[in-house]
Design brief:
heterodimer; A: 14 residues; mainly beta; B: 257 residues; five-stranded antiparallel beta sheet; 4 helices; 19 strands; 45% strand; globular
Chain lengths: 14, 257
């Protein structure tokens, strides 16, 4: 099953 | 003191109209390099990164960096009051809690100014890593918008698959299944009809169509859109703001649980 990931999973908070 | 005069004021309106449905409030950061806006959509699935370079402005003065928190819906209302050929000048005091927009008609026979209250918005700033993408597709912006619209009527998830034969958009739903394949076309007479695919290695990713469709609201900005993809990373959907900067959208993929 496909799960929508969050953008924060890929871009660390600066 | 901030004072910035943009001759093509309509670009500002097109940028705000492109993002106002994804992000409600955002900080517009101004520094000597120009204007930047970075914000996640309300569901934190996509990120918008806009930059308008200082040299895009006929006159640009920014004594010290500032961050202007605004409701994008209100900003859109103000920019709607500008004529499409108006020159737009932004002014703000360093310690001010308002920003003023001045609209001048090309013949200078009509000048108006609108003052917008600024807001305190604590927005989390994300670091966007430089990515060497496996596949980059530059295609007519109208084509991309049409694919999003057509496929949205069939399904709500799209698989974008880039191979040497082209880029295939696939969706399925109760109605049935749809595939749209876009092929490289570097021989079109008009440049804006060209599609260029730069493939380092094949890649296929799955995304929610509603975000990709929302990004297409930026279509009036540019003749082309560039999609950049790499396995298991967000897609970057980029519109150039003429030669003044860019409006980039990043969308996180849907991945096997």
């Amino acid at each position: 099953k496909l799960a929508q990931r969050a953008i924060g999973d890929f871009f660390p908070s600066a | 003191m901030l004072e910035a005069r943009l001759v093509q004021g309509s670009m500002l309106r097109k940028v705000v109209d492109a993002v106002k449905d994804l992000v409600s409030d955002a900080n517009i950061d101004v520094s000597s390099s120009g204007f930047s806006l970075q914000a996640m959509d309300t569901s934190h699935v996509s990120l918008i990164a806009m930059h308008l370079r200082a040299d895009a402005f006929e006159h640009f003065r920014c004594d010290r960096p500032m961050s202007m928190g605004m409701s994008l819906a209100n900003l859109a209302k103000v920019l709607k009051c500008a004529g499409s050929d108006d020159i737009v000048t932004l002014k703000a005091n360093d310690d001010g809690d308002t920003v003023t927009f001045m609209f001048e008609s090309p013949k200078e026979d009509r000048v108006s100014d609108f003052e917008l209250k600024l807001m305190d918005i604590d927005s989390e700033h994300l670091g966007i890593p430089d990515t060497d993408y496996c596949a980059t597709v530059t295609m007519p912006a109208g084509e991309y918008a049409r694919i999003c619209k057509d496929l949205s009527s069939i399904g709500d998830t799209v698989v974008i698959s880039a191979t040497k034969d082209g880029v295939k958009f696939t969706t399925s739903g109760d109605v049935g299944t749809a595939n749209v394949t876009v092929r490289q076309n570097t021989t079109a007479d008009k440049k804006e009809d060209q599609t260029i695919i730069d493939l380092k290695e094949p890649v296929a990713l799955t995304f929610a169509l509603r975000y990709l469709t929302s990004f297409a609201k930026a279509t009036p900005l540019a003749t082309h859109v560039t999609l950049s993809m790499t396995r298991e990373l967000p897609v970057m959907v980029e519109y150039a703001i003429q030669d003044m900067g860019h409006l980039r959208f990043y969308l996180a993929p849907k991945i096997e649980d």
